[in-house]
User: What shape does this take?
Amino acid sequence: MLLTYHRLYVTSTLLGFLFNLGQTNVLKNIRMLEPLVKEALPLPSKIHQGATRLRTLDEVEALFPGFKAFLDATEQEIPRPRDRAKRRTHYSGKKKRHTVKTQITVNADGLILHKTPHARGSMHDYALFKWRHPRLPDEVCLGLDLGYDGVQSGYPGLNALVPFKRRSPGRGKRGVKAVELSCGEKGFNRWLSGERVVVEHTISRLKKFRVMAHEFRNSLKHYDAMTDIVCGLVNLRITGVTAL
Assistant: This one.
């Protein structure tokens, strides 16, 4: 029942009909099952705890093939909040609707190593990174997109790759175009984009579960628990093993 709910995100009325339950008991039973399912799944929090205890290079390379990791954020629509302040803080200018945002980190195989709690939709990707970001071994290189521009100066000890960006000449120079990127810089951006496609594919796998793709109808206090299970199911598909 829980897996059906997360995969299809149907109404409790339909679930009650399918599993011969009263409508009021459907979500109660799902809430009871969630802790048991989370114990059996390779959740990102469990994997991240293990990543902080890696000691040898062989252990690091086993979890981070090629010593690579990639990070990106995804948004999900929520109903229009009744609270006026929440309507402002959760409105995403990018999506043009009210959303919550979650940031995930994956390795080169697409395994989800870290997931942040949900944040308001108006929060910038870099601000979300500064709020919560994974602790990775020094040998691992973290691939980012332009949403994290400035991370190299803000975190000089972080082994990160960020695409090159055309820089505006600044105020008072109206009509002056930004300097074009060199051929080498454009080539680097194309290479990094090709490397980072793995995190986009992982987000696509998450969105196959409609509880993370459609408008989130449940209370936001259950959002992180439900999305943890989805991430664990995706990790289970990749690794083929249960709790790590």
Q: What stands out?
A: The chain has a mean pLDDT of 93. The longest strand covers residues 97-107. The radius of gyration is 20 Å. The beta strands are 68-77, 91-92, 97-107, 112-115, 119-120, 141-143, 160-161.
